[in-house]
Design a protein that fits this description.
lipid transport; endosome; 25 helices; about 775 residues; Vps51; protein transport; flat
C-alpha cells in the first residue's frame, strides 16, 4: 500500500542515528499493550466499548471473508448496482489512503523531532557526566587537604583557643582603660549619642568590678564626664532654638542616662508647646494681614499644615517613641486637643472671610489639603478627636458655601429683574440698532440667564463631591450634603425664592407692587408658568443625576414646587389684569367725573378718552399675545359690531313709553329691572383668569366697564349727556367685542351703562341709531 511506501524512508534514513528496536518479544508486547490501553482498544485492535461482529460479510469486522462477500454481492445485486458499489468502494479506499498518508507524514515529523531531542539529550548528558567526574576529583582533593591540615593543627588547637580568648579580654580591658579619654573626646565634639552608647556598653562591667581600685577609678572618671554630658543635654533641652528632631534626641539620651521620665515628659511637652504656639502666632498675624497682603486661603492652609500640623505630628511621634512605655497617653491627648482647638479657631476665622463665590475650587482644594493632613494625626494618635473636629469644620464650610451660593443666586435674580425693568422702561429707538428687546426675547434671556447661573453654581458645588477629594467619601457628602444641602438648601430654596419674590410684586398700591410695570408682571407670570411646566422638573432631575441624590430623607416633591410656581403665576396674572383694568378705569372715571353732563352740548364726535381706551386695549392685546396663547372664544354673531343699545331695556321701555303712563310707572320699572337682573347670568368682575390672551383681556374689560358703570350711576345727565353716553358705548361696542371670550358680556355691561344713564337723565331723549352709527364711523 501507499502508506507503507511513504513510511519506508523514515526507517532507512534514521537507521544510522537511532537504536534498532528491542529484539526482546516481551518488551514489544509490553509496549504494545500500553498503547492499546492508552487508545482504549482490545486485543483485536477494536474499541473496548464496540461489540465484535462475527458476520463474514461485515467489511469492518475481524471475521471478514472477501470470497463470501463477493459471492453475496453477485447473487443479490444487479450489474448496475455492482458497478455503483465498486465506484463507492474505490472512493472509500482512496479516502482511506489519503488519511493514512497524512497520518504517516504527521507522525514522521514527530519521529524526526523526537530523534533530534534524544540525540541532543545524549550529548548533554555526556558533557554533564564529564563535569561531574571533574567535580568529584576536586572534592576528593579538598577532603585530603582538610584532613592533612586538621592532623597538623590538632596538637596546637587548645593553645590557639586560649590565646584568642586572652586577646579578646585584652581588647575589652583596653576599651575600659581608654573609655574616659574617649568620652572626653566625644564631649568636645558634641557626639553625645556616641558617648552615651560607649558608656552604656561599659557600665555593667564597671559596676561589676567596682571593688577593684583600677576599675573604681575608671568608673568615677566616667561618672564625672557623664554628669557634664547630662548637664549639657539639659541646657540644650532648655534652649528655645532647638529643633524638634534635636529635642527628641536630647530626651532620648537623657532617658538612657536614667533621667526621671515624668519630668522629661513635662519639659518635652512644655518646650513643644512654646514652639507650636509660635507657629500659631505666625498664622494669627497672617490672618490679620490677609486683607492687606491679599493672601488666598490655600496659601494660609498650606502654611498651617506645613508648619503647625507637621510640627504637631512630629511631636506626637516623638512623644510616643520616647514616653509611651513610661506613662499613659492622657497628657498627650490633652496637649494635642488644646493646641488643635486654637488652630481650628484660626482656620474657621479664615474660612469665614471667604465671601466671594467666583472660584470655589480654591476653597475646596484648601479644605481637602486641611482634611488630608489631619488624617496623619488619626494614624499617629488613634482615638484623638482632632480629625473628627476637622471634618466638622469642612462640613460647616460646605454648608456656609451653599448659603453663600444661594444668596448669590438671589442677588443675581434681583439684578436680572432690574435689567429687565430698565429694558422695559427704555424708550424704543427708531433704528433696529436702538430697538429694545421684545417681551419674548426678555423672557428667554431672563430664563436662560437664571438657568445658566444655576448650572454654574451646581458645577462649583459639585467640586465638594469629586472623587479626588479626600472628604468626599464621608457619609455627610454622600448623603445629607447632596439631598438636604444642594437639592433642598440650594435648588429648592432658590425656586421657592423666585416664586415668593414674584408674589411680592402683587402687593397693594403704595407698597412695592404699586410701582411695578404691568409688563413685568406679565413676564414674571409667564416665567413662573414655564417653571411649573418644565423648568422645575428639568432642574431637579439634573441635580439628582449630577449629585446622585438618594431620597433617604424627606425632600420636597416636584409636584409641590410646580403647584407653588403655578400659584405664583396665577397671582401675578390676576394682579396684571387688576392693574391694567385700574389704569383704564382711572381714565374712564376722570372722564366721567370732570364733565358737566347736564349742560353739555349735543354730541358730534366720540370722546377722545374712548379712543384711548380702545387703543390701550389693543396694545394690551398685542402685549399679552406675545407671551400667551389665544384661548377659546364663543361663536360670535354676524352683527356683533353693529349691536344697538336702547335707552331702556325691553321691560323698561314698554312701561316708560306705554300710553297708560302713571306716576307709579317708575316704581314698576325698577321692580321689573331688578327681577330681570335676578334671572340674568351673574358677572364676576374679579374672577381668576386663565393662562390665555382671551381670558386676560376679558378680565381687563370687565373691570373697565364695571368702573364706567359705577361712575355713570353717580352722575346726573341731561338730554345731550345721555346721547353722548350712547355714542361712547356704541363706539366701545364696535371694537371691544373682539377681545373678549363672550361678546354677550360686553353687550350686557354696555347696555347697563346706557340704561343707568337714562335712569339718571333729567330729559331722557335718546339719539337716533342711524345718527349714532354715522358719528362712530366718522370718529
Amino acid at each position: 500500500p501507499l502508506w507503507i511506501k511513504a513510511a519506508a524512508p523514515s526507517t532507512n534514513n534514521n537507521s544510522s542515528s537511532t537504536t534498532p528496536p528491542d529484539s526482546d518479544p516481551n518488551g514489544r508486547r509490553r509496549i504494545h499493550s500500553m498503547l492499546k490501553l492508552y487508545y482504549g482498544l482490545n486485543e483485536e485492535g477494536k474499541a473496548a466499548d464496540q461489540a465484535e461482529s462475527l458476520d463474514p460479510c461485515d467489511i469492518n469486522g475481524p471475521h471478514f471473508d472477501p470470497e463470501v462477500y463477493l459471492n453475496k454481492l453477485r447473487k443479490e445485486c444487479s450489474l448496475g448496482e455492482l458497478m455503483d458499489h465498486e465506484s463507492c468502494m474505490v472512493k472509500q479506499i482512496r479516502s482511506l489512503d489519503s488519511d493514512m498518508q497524512t497520518l504517516v507524514y504527521e507522525n514522521y515529523n514527530k519521529f524526526i523531532s523526537a530523534t533530534d531531542t534524544i540525540r541532543k539529550m545524549k550529548n548533554d548528558f555526556k558533557k554533564m557526566e564529564d563535569e561531574m567526574d571533574c567535580l568529584s576529583a576536586n572534592m576528593a582533593s579538598i577532603t585530603e587537604f582538610s584532613a592533612r591540615i586538621s592532623g597538623t593543627l590538632q596538637d596546637q588547637h587548645a593553645q590557639i583557643t586560649k590565646l584568642s580568648g586572652v586577646h579578646t579580654l585584652l581588647r575589652k580591658l583596653q576599651f575600659l582603660f581608654e573609655l574616659p579619654a574617649r568620652l572626653n573626646k566625644c564631649l568636645e565634639l558634641q557626639a553625645y549619642a556616641q558617648a552615651v552608647s560607649a558608656h552604656r556598653r561599659a557600665r555593667c562591667v564597671l559596676q561589676q568590678y567596682s571593688h577593684m581600685p583600677s576599675f573604681r577609678g575608671i568608673q568615677d572618671d566616667c561618672h564625672v564626664i557623664m554628669e557634664q554630658l547630662a548637664q549639657q543635654l539639659r541646657q540644650k533641652f532648655r534652649d528655645g532654638g532647638s529643633s524638634a528632631k534635636d529635642l527628641s534626641e536630647c530626651v532620648e539620651l537623657l532617658l538612657q542616662l536614667d533621667e526621671p521620665a515624668e519630668e522629661l515628659c513635662d519639659k518635652f511637652l512644655s518646650h513643644a508647646q512654646s514652639r507650636l504656639e509660635a507657629d500659631l502666632q505666625g498664622l494669627e498675624a497672617e490672618l490679620k494681614d490677609s486683607a492687606i497682603t491679599d493672601t488666598d486661603i490655600l496659601e494660609f492652609i498650606d502654611r498651617g499644615c506645613n508648619e503647625f500640623v507637621s510640627s504637631l505630628c512630629l511631636v506626637i511621634a516623638s512623644y510616643q517613641e520616647l514616653f509611651i512605655n513610661q506613662m499613659a497617653n492622657g497628657k498627650l491627648h490633652v496637649f494635642v486637643d488644646t493646641l488643635a482647638a486654637r488652630y481650628f479657631s484660626l482656620v474657621e476665622r479664615r474660612i469665614q472671610e471667604e465671601k466671594g463665590v467666583s472660584d470655589n475650587s480654591l476653597l475646596v482644594r484648601a479644605l481637602d489639603r486641611f482634611h488630608r493632613r489631619l488624617q496623619a494625626i488619626s494614624k499617629l494618635l488613634p482615638g484623638s478627636a482632632v480629625p473628627s473636629h476637622g471634618t466638622e469644620i469642612v462640613v460647616q464650610a460646605a454648608r456656609e458655601r451653599i448659603k453663600q451660593y444661594l444668596s448669590a443666586l438671589q442677588t443675581f435674580y434681583h439684578d436680572s429683574l432690574t435689567d429687565v425693568r430698565q429694558a422695559l422702561a427704555a424708550p424704543r429707538g427708531a433704528s433696529s440698532k436702538d430697538a429694545t428687546p421684545s417681551l419674548p426675547e426678555l423672557l428667554a434671556s431672563l430664563s436662560n440667564f437664571i438657568l445658566n447661573q444655576l448650572k454654574s453654581v451646581l458645577a462649583s458645588v459639585h467640586l465638594f463631591t469629586a472623587k479626588d477629594i479626600t472628604f468626599s467619601n464621608k457619609p455627610y457628602f454622600k448623603g445629607e450634603f447632596c439631598s438636604q444641602g444642594v437639592r433642598e438648601g440650594l435648588v429648592v430654596s432658590f425656586i421657592k425664592f423666585i416664586c415668593q419674590s414674584s408674589r411680592q410684586y402683587c402687593e397693594s398700591a403704595g407698597d412695592r407692587g404699586g410701582s411695578t410695570p404691568p409688563a413685568l408682571l406679565l413676564l414674571l407670570s409667564r416665567l413662573c408658568l414655564d417653571y411649573e411646566t418644565s423648568t422645575i422638573s428639568y432642574i431637579l432631575t439634573l441635580t439628582d443625576e449630577q449629585f446622585l441624590v438618594q431620597h433617604h430623607t424627606p425632600v420636597t416633591p416636584v409636584t409641590a414646587l410646580c403647584a407653588e410656581a403655578r400659584e405664583a403665576a396665577q397671582k401675578l396674572l390676576n394682579h396684571y389684569v387688576k392693574v391694567q383694568g385700574l389704569i383704564i378705569s382711572q381714565m374712564l372715571r376722570k372722564s366721567v367725573e370732570t364733565r358737566d353732563w347736564v349742560n353739555t352740548i349735543e354730541p358730534r364726535n366720540v370722546r377722545a378718552v374712548m379712543k384711548r381706551v380702545v387703543e390701550d386695549t389693543t396694545s394690551i392685546d398685542v402685549q399679552v399675545g406675545l407671551l400667551y396663547e389665544e384661548g377659546v372664544r364663543k361663536a360670535h354673531s354676524s352683527d356683533s359690531s353693529k349691536r344697538t343699545f336702547s335707552v331702556y331695556s325691553s321691560s323698561r321701555q314698554q312701561i316708560r313709553y306705554a300710553p297708560s303712563y302713571t306716576p307709579s310707572a317708575p316704581m314698576d320699572t325698577n321692580l321689573l329691572s331688578n327681577i330681570h337682573k335676578l334671572f340674568s347670568e351673574r358677572i364676576d368682575i374679579f374672577s381668576p383668569v386663565e393662562f390665555n390672551k382671551v381670558s386676560v383681556l376679558t378680565g381687563i374689560i370687565k373691570i373697565s366697564l364695571k368702573t364706567f358703570l359705577e361712575c355713570v350711576r353717580l352722575r346726573t345727565f341731561g338730554r345731550y349727556g345721555l346721547q353722548q353716553i350712547q355714542v361712547d358705548c356704541h363706539y366701545l361696542q364696535m371694537y371691544l367685542w373682539r377681545f373678549v371670550s363672550d361678546e354677550n358680556l360686553v353687550h350686557f355691561l354696555l347696555d347697563e351703562i346706557v340704561c343707568s344713564a337714562a335712569h339718571r337723565c333729567l330729559d331722557p331723549s335718546p339719539m337716533e341709531q342711524s345718527v349714532i352709527e354715522v358719528i362712530c364711523e366718522r370718529g
